[in-house]
Design goal:
By secondary structure, this protein is an alpha+beta fold. Helix content is 36%, strand content 28%. It contains 3 helices and 5 strands. Strands 1-2-3-4-5 form a 5-stranded mixed sheet. A hairpin with a 2-residue loop joins strand 4 and strand 5. The longest helix has 16 residues.
Length: 95
């Protein structure tokens, strides 16, 4: 599923019986993961089969999460190692 990940979209998300994802239409690799419990988290897929959680939707705005995702995707495109990308993501996860 794709959508424009803005606050109004995040606020309108409803959990389903199985986990699902909403991919951002503007930034490839940026998504929200929705759990059946209602837990929402921002995720970045920075390489094929390489993902990191950026944090809970209740703690980050879509803009903050998108900016963090953009930085990590940019690092990956410039050749940063997975360890470098994970270290750069830690401050975001700590929010």
């Amino acid at each position: 599923m794709k959508g424009n990940l803005i606050q109004r979209t995040i606020d309108s998300i409803k959990p389903k019986s199985k986990p699902y994802e909403i991919w951002d239409e503007k930034l490839t690799g940026f998504l929200v993961r929705v759990q059946p419990s209602g837990h929402l988290s921002y995720v970045v897929q920075y390489r094929h089969n390489k993902r990191l959680s950026l944090g809970k939707c209740s703690l980050l705005t879509p803009g903050q999460a998108r900016d963090a995702a953009f930085e990590l995707i940019s690092m990956a495109r410039k050749g940063a190692s997975d360890d470098e990308i994970k270290r750069a993501a830690r401050p975001v996860e700590g929010l």
